[in-house]
Specification:
Blueprint lengths: L26 H15 L59 E6 L5 E10 L15 E7 L7 E5 L14 H9 L3 E5 L15 H13 L14 E6 L1 H14 L16 H7 L2 E7 L23 E6 L9 H6 L6 E7 L6 H4 L4 H11 L5 H12 L6 H4 L17 E5 L19
Parallel strand pairs: 4-5, 4-6, 6-7, 7-8, 8-9
Antiparallel strand pairs: 1-2, 2-3, 3-5, 9-10
Helix pairs in contact: 2-8, 3-5, 8-9
Length: 431
Amino acid sequence: AALYAGAPAPAWFGSPHNSSIKVPINSINIMLEICLIAVGAGGGAFAYFSHGSDSLLPSIVPDATALPTETERGPLFAPFNPAPGPVVPDVVEDPNWLPSTSTLVALNGNKQVEVKCRHVHMPELISPFLPGRIYRSSRICYPNNGKKYPLHIFAHGDFGGGPRLGSAYHGFQHDIASRGFVVSMYLSCAIDQLCDNGNGSFLEILKSVSFLETNSGWWDERIDFSAGYSASGHSTGGRAVLMLAALVDNPTKYLATTKYASMITKEQRKSIQKFQAIVGDHPDPVYLSKMNPDLENFVVDKTPTMIVTGSNDRTERKLSAWKVFEPIRSTNKVYVNMLRANHISPLRSHQEGRYIAQFSLCFIDGIPEETASEGCEAIYGNGPDAIQRRLSIAGPGDRNSGDGKVGFLGCRGGKHDDVPAEFAEYCSPEN
């Protein structure tokens, strides 16, 4: 209880950028969080086989944010999503609930960017409780300089939502926002079971975008809606954004014969087409039918897509990320296997955060040409700040290196040389 009662978060629970931030809450919210964990545990031992991995997660883990599960408990949409109650303010800054925060994020050299984060109530999001405003909310972070920036949606992993477990992604959000984005992370779908074992999480992305597009608020002065959208997600969130990519590239067929088709509005289908860059960070195995409700029509052949994993990720199956990457037919795609990174590294060091932003800047419309060029150089170049120079990349023989040897691969759509040249054969859509 001391952790949740206003004590500074330990290093594993968030970000070094904001580890001193205190979030005071009341006992009711503590009980809600405990109830969520109890639902996930299902009354049994707090241990799970992880997405068919080759190891059993420990019964006591230091961070449950990305804890995966394959237990079948069925969809939980309707019983836990009643009609919205009384109107509440769109920005909640009650110090006993979810305060707004400002954090300085270091960039290159001595440059710093102030990132501010605020919580916005979005009534259409999923909530297991009444009135549910804590979970029917999104945390939105942006550079606090009065300018407008493109929208980036971040999708959390299993056990990664809610007012406190979701705080583990604060540093990740800050890293992306500091590079020139308004980053919105929904707090709903706190655990996979609340959103059809994660298969329905993508709907929270669509609801979030719909709310921001159709409701007026302070975000109108922060989001550049004329620019292209981008999205990234961790673990279950990686699955959600890859499903979004399939909706962009195969809109008439993907999910058309599933129950989800009727849950996507005509307006949302228009918004889907504004997404121009997708990043799956340690994503779920969308090549398995239980992790993808329409495997037959899952096609990503146009949208630029980046897949990130780590050589110490034993939560996902060995080479799972490569198996996600290979079927992607987009000619602009990137694979990154970070040396010694594990499944919850995005919560701890989140070194890939800046490159998720740069990858997005490389491909979305509506941004200055110089900014886009800098983004592309960071991903495909060989300068001091390029991904190949700044990140420790796994090598041949390391776990999750593609085909036993590919730790990094940047495919450039035929307009430029693929990097590195010796792995260019893996960029061919026919490969």
